[in-house]
Amino acid sequence: MFKxxxxxxxxxxxxxxxxxxxxxxxxxxxxAGFTLTMLLVLTFAGTFxxxxxSMLLKHSAERHIEQTAIQADGRLDALLEQIDxxxxxxxADSYVQKLLAMEAKxxxxxxxxxxxxxxxxxxxxxxxxxxxSLELYTVDNRRLFPLDGTNMNRISEDxxxxxxxxxxxxxxxxxxxxxxxxxxxxxxxxxxxxxYSAGGYLxxxxxxxxxxxxxxxxxxxxxxxxxxxxxxxxxGNPILSDMEDEVARTVLAQTGGTVTIGGERMLxxxxxxxxxGWRLVLLMPVEAATEGISVLRTAIYVSVGIAxxxxxxxxxxxxxxxTRPLQKLRRSMRSARFGGLKEIPAGGSRFRTLxxxxxxxxxxxxxIYMNELIQVVYEKEITQSRTELQALQAQINPHFLxxxxxxxxxxxxxxxxxxxAQTIVAMSGLFRxxxxxxxxxxEWVTVRDELEHAQRYxxxxxxxxxxxLHWSIEADSELWRVxxxxxxxxxxxxxxxxxxxxxxxxxxxxMIRVSxxxxxxxxxxxxxxxxxxxxxxxxxxxxxxxxxxxxxxKKGAGIAMSNVERRLKLYYPGxxxxxxxxxxxxxxxxxxxxxxxxxxxxxxxxxx
Length: 608
Hints:
CATH topology of the domain at 469-599: Heat Shock Protein 90
Strand content: 15-25%
Oligomer: single chain
Helix content: 40-55%
Number of helices: 16
CATH architecture of the domain at 469-599: 2-Layer Sandwich
Number of strands: 17
Largest sheet: 5 strands, antiparallel
């Protein structure tokens, strides 16, 4: 009986030995790879780290404080660059440039024009929590913003000289003498459109606490909690410090790798900021930097020995935990190749991890989703014919409208109502042009098609306004086949009738003129002889076109024009060169001209 059991055990052991020879499994690969890696690490630790660890530990604290100082200097430069970038954007803002250009020419800005600087300043200040205020001055040191109605807070001569010396770059002046909790920065604004001549000055006040970087260093190391940071300007005046100002000045006056504060020796690392000319000093007690080296060295030796034993044991356990559920998942996925999409039953294993459970749950959800997807595809096949029928009905509806208008036309012809019949024909053509285009031909048409559409619209408006409306169309015949975006002229013609003809007493005239102004470019102008606009109204109209803000929100005035503007910029990118594609010219009593340019393609090119 004993020999039988012993033979059984020997047989099982032989079977296990044979299985170990199958090394091409995930479990064996994980075990072998981790073991080999650990052996290499232990060999290196025994031959090299043991001899070098003491020296490394001695210098680790010094390297750490140096790295911390470099990182702090990098964060300081990033904060300074953020302020520099925001002030640069303010200085280059188009409205600020325009206002300062007017002031440079001797035209004093009005209160409303200066008040418009408030949302611009608030918008840029929202990007940085450090800027407490922004001030704008003219080149003759007269403040335009904020609007407090006083010139008492003028810029000092030293600040002006520093800004002029920088020639448009940001000059950091240190602590603001009027506000001790703020740092003063000034930038001279150069007028971009006037040969970069001086146009004014931008003053930014930044909170001193904005440069506080202690929170960033709190997680550096065990000794970082005892570090002291000192930030000073180029003149040696403390800007931000963890000590009294007098003590800080004493530290700044000392040189070398160590300084003395109250009889205590401190390691000192200094960094210089090229952006502002400031100095960053990071201090750490010498005793704190070298504390615990022997204890740490002993702990490393003990940890290596314990890790060698625990690593082998945990590697075997980990490989088993990973591979056993994966084998189960592999069997389930293999059965899916034969059409059996079945879920993996939950549980059934003592070794379970969050990742493996999530993988199993994801596979089960995929199986459920695929089964549901099969059912959805089947239902979509059933509803596809219904969708095609609805699409056919949507296509028939416009044809029904056109046929109805044709019936009206023949009925009026029989009754000898020629004028109404022609209006019906124009209306039918207008609807057919707008909603009856062939698929794939909705974006581009020819100039001739667009002018015919505008002509039909003018005929319809002629019936409503009778003798109050006169119109004409002038176009060079060689430009008829030039491609143009569809429905780009009619909104402007509608705007000319609404604000030009209907706004005057007596008859009015609308003219459409298409002409080639220069090689490769054609200009389309819509001209009316309405009452025109003054400069203020014209400026508001241009702003509404550029920024899609209606002049009259109740009537939506300007929305159609802004839509045309966006489409022109979309179809002709780069032609406006940063400005508006629609050019509006108007004078009081002289009517209005709205024009835009289109591209004449060369031979062989096709746009439409």
